[in-house]
């Protein structure tokens, strides 16, 4: 059963929902998610409602969805209740978390700072516990970054692991379907539903990725070492220190920016030309740059992606994990100047591009750093290890007192 009203069944105290996203969809079945409620980033189709993709022009030029997106349908069938659509940065082309049309959601863990984006509304709703979990997407860091900023369990799935059917794309070459939760047990329950056909995996080692750690502020290092110690002590893994790549991580960043921009422009150029949408100035600048990426530039970037992908996949093999920061900084101040935002964005992309270019899963473990602010440490796994990686991350989180974990949260 579907209901629609001007208000959600709870108060939206954090500005997480888009104006056209105030509705509830009841479960279509019963299962592992009975009793849980969730929200969906406004890229996911919900039958009978328009998907807005963060921009009013998209909303105005697209009809209501004929059916649910694949993930929404699976979650409803497993017993979860959907509570509407949450805010996203425009066409998901940002990791900042502000939207000139719909506002900037509140980061309840750090009210003077942004949530991060582009899954900004989902992060805000989950952090405030207005829903049990929230769907997001991650192309260049759009779930990993807000999870780190807001103290949430979140991830990037193996590229192609979960269906993108019924989801507005940004860059299909890199887009992944994701979710966030404030509670580790809930986070893992969702994973058990969406990744329920994955085989078990034995872990044999871990690598503390020194080049990624060097890109992050000092608050992340002790947290990363805490995770490494827990993996050695509790999981019996031998932890080494090594760089993710023989190439400087700015090469990874530049490769990702070029490859994803070309892919995004091929995806959306016709709509941009016909609808002439108004974008935030920074996002407009990215579309302008994307339009100038030549086929030759793209071919070089795709070739370099293959080299870098093979390098990090070779480092991990089938049974090792990487340990790295989820972002380069704590959440950015809401009034930060554009130059500072751009500098942090660049250093963060040097980190997030590792999983992005390699198509690998990455799970954020939420902590509070020595400065009292949320700061996430991630586990990076081999392709297809998503559920095993989630379980290892949750175990490490319980062992190290991560946010949203307790002895009672253990499966």
Automatic annotation (TrEMBL):
Superkingdom to which the source organism belongs: Bacteria
Protein name: Amidase
UniProt domain Amidase: residue ranges: 30-197
Organism: Bordetella genomosp. 7
